[in-house]
């Protein structure tokens, strides 16, 4: 069975939701480990309560992108048998950029959730970016991770209408609801071998 690792840095609501959906919807994956780069990430306790092993690989204060740190992640992932052959890595609010070496190692096996309709509003504070731009619709995206920032092949997206009186918080809340719908769906598609990448386009079956 596919061994999945979920990488977090904070609250972990997407992580919690994926773990619960795996059980409820019988998604054929083994939730092997939750890894945080922040020792005080709230999601760690939630994962433990749900019976999933947790590990902390504390980050070095840099924004990321360095193999020195990422090789420590690989050691932990190997310990839990999350491998390039039978693993899936779900980034869920993991606030670090991964190095090209790490991405190459797990090519096609790293997913991320982003709170905007990519390629609009990549990077940080996407909800604020959307409000400031004045778009009428935004949403969220599950995509494969490649070497760029939020540039990998798009698997699923969900659209959210922006209200005139939205604040960053109210908009983020409605987007999060949609995130919780599409991330488990994408994991299920991957686990069932239903995603085929042609060029940079994932074809879903
Ligand atoms: C989510 O909005 C996700 O889209 C972004 O970081 C946030 C993580 O929230 N990448 P949570 O930790 O899953 O609650």
Key features?
205 residues; alpha/beta; Rossmann fold; two-stranded antiparallel ribbon; 9 strands; 25% strand; binds 5-O-phosphono-beta-D-ribofuranosylamine
Can you put this structure into words, describing what you see?
It is a single chain. This protein is of the alpha/beta class. The chain folds into two domains: 1-107, Rossmann fold (3-Layer(aba) Sandwich); 112-205, Rossmann fold, CATH 3.40.50. It is 35% helix and 25% strand. The chain has helices spanning 13-24, 42-49, 67-79, 100-105, 126-133, 168-191; strands spanning 2-8, 29-36, 54-56, 87-91, 110-114, 137-144, 154-161, 195-198, 201-204. It has a seven-stranded mixed sheet with strand order 3-2-1-4-5-6-7, with helices on both faces. The chain has a two-stranded antiparallel ribbon with strand order 8-9. Helix 1 packs parallel to helix 6. The longest helix has 24 residues, at 168-191. The structure holds 5-O-phosphono-beta-D-ribofuranosylamine (GRF). Residues 8, 10-15, 92-93, 113-115, 176, 179 line the site of 5-O-phosphono-beta-D-ribofuranosylamine. The site of 5-O-phosphono-beta-D-ribofuranosylamine (GRF) has 14 residues, from helix 1, strand 5 and helix 6.
How many domains? The number is 2
**According to CATH, what is the class of the largest domain?**
Alpha Beta
> What is the H/E order?
EHEHEHEHEHEEHEE
Kindly, what is the distance between the CA atoms of the first and last residues, rounded to a whole number of angstroms? 20 Å
Q: Beta fraction of the residues?
A: 25-35%
CATH H-level homologous superfamily name of the largest domain: Formyl transferase, N-terminal domain
Order of strands, main sheet, comes to 3-2-1-4-5-6-7
Radius of gyration: 16 Å
Oligomer: single chain
User: How much helix is in the residues?
Assistant: 25-40%
CATH-derived architecture of the largest domain: 3-Layer(aba) Sandwich
The overall pLDDT average reads 96
Largest sheet: 7 strands, mixed
Bound molecules: 5-O-phosphono-beta-D-ribofuranosylamine
* Rough outline: globular
Total number of helices: 6
Name the poorly predicted regions. Answer: none
**Which secondary-structure class do the elements indicate?**
alpha/beta
Report the count of strand segments: 9
The CATH topology of the largest domain comes to Rossmann fold
